[in-house]
Amino acid sequence: MPEIDITIAGRSFAVACQAGEEHFLRSAAAMLDAEAQPLVAQMGRLPEGRMLLMAGLMLADKTAALEDEMRALKSRLAELEARPAPEPQRIEVPVIPPQVEETLAEIAARAEALAQKLDENAPAVG
């Protein structure tokens, strides 16, 4: 079982852990140290037990708040997932935009006018 040294509020501790768990222990120690540092800065030198107790309680308080928030979010998620799916909305998109119809009507009128002119100007075959 490996033993690693951690530092909490400037004090070193030798702590044993399972093989492969060293990273997690260092991470937890860093969190505890982050809570202990302000305590030591505010109150000065504290007995080791009191400093660790206060830092642990501060972490527990943060953890409890996060657990409450997580419960509320899970409840909200369950509520949202339980809602029936909304009715699909029917959206109609015209295949041919209205201005295309107007343009085609103009082209048809011009074509008819040209055809009529051609008929009038064409020599009679016969």
TrEMBL record:
| Biological processes, Gene Ontology terms | cell division
Q: Does the keyword Amino-acid biosynthesis apply?
A: no
Q: Under which name does UniProt file this protein?
A: Cell division protein ZapA
**Coiled coil stretches, renumbered:** none
User: Per the record's keyword annotation, is Methyltransferase included, yes or no?
Assistant: no
Q: Which UniProt keywords apply?
A: Cell cycle, Cell division
Record's superkingdom?
Bacteria
